[in-house]
Amino acid sequence: MADIILKPIAELLTETLRSAGVEEIKRLFDARGELSKLESTLSTIRAVLVDAEKRQISSEQVRDWLEKLEAVLYDADDLVDEVNSEGLRRKLMHGNEIRKKVRTFFSSDNQLAFQHYLAGEIRKITERLDAISADKERFHFVTSLPEETKVRVDSQSFVDVENVVGRDQDRRDIVELLLDHESSTEKIKVPVIPIVGMGGLGKTTLAQLVFNDERVQQHFKLKIWVCVSYNFDVKLICQKIINATKRGIIIGDSPMEELREILRERIQGKRCLLVLDDVWNLEGQDWVVLKDLLATVCREGSGIIVTTRHRWVADVMGTMQPYDLGILDPKDSWNLFKKMAFEHGRDPTNPTTEGIAKQILAKCGGVPLAITMIGRMLRFEDPETEWPSFLERDLPNITQQENEILQTLRLSYDYLPSHLKPCFAYCSLYPKGHEIDVQELIRLWIAQGFIKPSTPNQNLEDIGYLYFKDLFRRSFFQEAERDRLKGFITCKMHDVVHDLAIQISGRGYKMLSSGEANLESHVRHISLDFNLNILREVPSQWLQAERLRSFLLPIQSHLEFDESDKITHTPRGLGQLTNLQTLSQLVLSENPCSGKLDELKRLNLKGNLKIKGLKNGLEPKEAKLKDKQHLQFLCLDFMGIGDDASTNKQESVLEGLQPHPNLRELVVASYGGDRFSSWLSSLTNLVKLSLKNCSRCRQLPSLDRCYLLEELVLMDLDALEYIIVNDGDSFVSISSSSTGLSVLPSLQKFTLENLPGFRGWWRSDVAESQEVQVVFPRLSSLTISRCPSLTFMPCYPNVEEMEMGFTSFERKTLMRVPQAQISATTTTDRASSSSAASSSTTLTVSLSFYPLSKLLSLSLDGIVDLHHFPDERMNGLASLKILRFTRCHRLNYLTPYIHYLTSLEELEIADCQQFEGIEWPETPALTSLRILK
């Protein structure tokens, strides 16, 4: 039975009673007395809620009292929310120039009617609360003081949640079962190894250890991880397997036969490892269908690992005895506890503290999840004062039975700061195993009023992010995906922690399954645990649920409505929303109803902002982008190049739109100026720069101070010829006294697309005057497409992925590099001869991949004059694993020199019309060959 958690509701209700809208109603209708009495009664009830919520577990009478209070609080919340909205609306209408037109709406009759309604509803709520408040006296609840909200600021890096203790032998056992079954007398093509154990023992963690084991990595060519959870849906599992191959995503409701064919195509003949994690339920026939299919397409020596809590599932699915995962022994339990509870995992210096810690540890029963969460919880408490209290007061209520693990974890929840409790409870709306979008979760918390700034100037998103990090550090979230720049992106919840969220979330939260339509009156937040495709229409009960606060739909895809070209203009008046912090798009037009750039002047925006239609923008400095220090992404879209007369105007507009140096990503699109603004060099925190459809610009802006730039995209720049030119106002400034140059030292990804006039990295006078030693030293991904004039480029020793498409192979693959970088190579083919005549100042290398020893993937697309591949100089590509040819219509054959590619695993030749398929020496590592006509 779910707990009743009312403290967050009561706190939010108190805050709303003090809001601007309610204050306006108090002033207009002399309602100060009634609303103040309501707040006072609510305050006395709030003071006992902490004790009441704890005692509901052991007292049915207390639980009954909380249920009555819950109904009143929700009704009061609805009423006060209505009052606040009405007050804000009337406050906005006050003084408006159109107030005369709506005078009848605010007639004295209407005002008297509303005042009468308001007084009656407040009286009913107050009387109900008074009765409940009086009834509380019989329980002698302990009164607690209001808790101050404190957001922990990181003083150290996160504890590594992947740190595992005591599972090395288990990992070795499973690996041996996987790899040694071929020598077994029982010949099973695809063995299935079940790992079984109660929740929290670390079944998933053990499977992850095996999945990433070095021997496993070498043995299996394809490794796939699928989280199954409650619903064993064969079609869905097949889709996940296909998507995990990372060669095209399958979405929608594909027929099973189509999935079978795609599955065969993706994994036919490969030695595969498949992990089916967290299997709860299955129909025997469904498993037989999937097992037979996998046995058909997988190569002998493949294997399947299944993790489950239920032995009957293990018995049905396994081809061998289930692997029973046990608890940690005392030594490993103590080592894990120390890592969680003590700084740097050291032994406590105080013997008393160690004794208390070991008594607490004994109650965790050797269960890693319990040890982790209790240890992390205690890490935030004082060992000398709080730990003894915890041992004496809370631990006696916990049994050591395995199925009571939730009681142990409940203690971690009980010790959470009050502001984090509703945030965690809200997560019960997500399905088990769901990948949670962190920013979306924070916005949902904000919408519910869970985020509480301690000062007026604090940003709600920033506080919400700190809330999330605090919960993560306490192990309420796991498997977090992090970006170095953006921080946490996604996360998951452990199944047992999810069970805890459902237990404590209360009756106001409900996840609806297929066919379930009825909603109880106390439900305020619902989510759907099924695919919307099976729902023909939304049940009328949902649509009529006036008290519903949250309705979370299953995520089918991500819809960016703000990118729609149908938005012709942004209306005027946005500038009056001075508290607005997120504005995804501002569309300017000559429409008299359109907002202008000055709408941004008073807005303290953060996150992402796209401004479209800048050729119509006036007074760009009025936008004051330079003051918006919290903007992370900015797109300046001029939506059209215009004629020669507009060039100076667009240059002036761009110059006036200088952003704050904190900006991380910038896009300039459809810009009609001849030159970029000088302020680009001041964006010292820029990580990604995209210049698109700036057809008049002949050279790139100076970026010599953009030391953090990791990604550069150049697209549709018709007039661009060179990246580096020998003047002080170019892409980089090259002085005559320099002995060498490191251009963009952090750049990792470089895309050049549709640059018809682009000839090369630097002009010949640069190469003659300077020894360019290092260009993009960290570059790992290079894409060049539709650059027909390109005749030379430097080689990059760290490039791992290279894509070339739709141009002349003879020109495009010619690489001119400084003499110091590569020794002389004799060029014999026609391509090198034509290039050698073009310049004698640098070494010309045709198709020499010598510096690309780390290249892992090479794709050639639409190279119309490529006849054969490769030649004798391919031995430099010793690391190449993936080689693809697409739409190379004159490619005839692959030469015997392909045996130089000793690491090649995947070779694909698609839509190459003249390819004859002549045999070539087999490469030792090749596991996938596809020739598609």
Please characterize this protein's 3D structure.
- The protein has 933 residues and is α/β, with parallel strands linked by helices.
- Among the domains are: 7-139, no CATH class; 189-324, P-loop containing nucleotide triphosphate hydrolases (Rossmann fold), CATH 3.40.50; 330-414, Helicase, Ruva Protein, domain 3 (Orthogonal Bundle), CATH 1.10.8; 421-509 and 518-552, Arc Repressor Mutant, subunit A.
- 32% of the residues lie in helices and 15% in strands.
- It has 27 helices and 32 strands.
- A 13-stranded parallel β-sheet has the order 12-13-14-15-16-17-20-23-24-27-29-31-32, with no helix packed on it.
- The longest helix is centred in the first third of the chain and has 34 residues, at 60-93.
- It starts with 6 loop residues before the first helix and ends with a strand.
Q: Helical content, roughly?
A: 25-40%
Which CATH-level-2 architecture of the domain at 189-324?
Answer: 3-Layer(aba) Sandwich
Shape: globular
Task: Specify the number of helices.
Answer: 27
Q: In this structure, how is the largest beta sheet organized?
A: 13 strands, parallel
Note the gap between the termini: 61 Å
CATH topology-level name of the domain at 189-324? Rossmann fold
Residue share in β-strands:
15-25%
CATH superfamily of the domain at 189-324: P-loop containing nucleotide triphosphate hydrolases
> What integer is the average pLDDT?
77
Structural class, from secondary structure content?
alpha/beta
Strand order of the largest sheet: 12-13-14-15-16-17-20-23-24-27-29-31-32
Q: What value does the Rg take, in angstroms?
A: 33 Å
The stretches of 5 or more residues where confidence is low (pLDDT under 50) are 95-109, 148-161, 399-403, 555-564, 728-740, 811-849
Q: Quick one: how many beta strands?
A: 32
Per CATH, the class of the domain at 189-324 reads Alpha Beta
GO molecular function: ADP binding; ATP binding
Protein name: Disease resistance protein RGA3
Keywords: ATP-binding, Coiled coil, Leucine-rich repeat, Nucleotide-binding, Plant defense, Repeat
Domain Disease resistance protein winged helix: 429-501
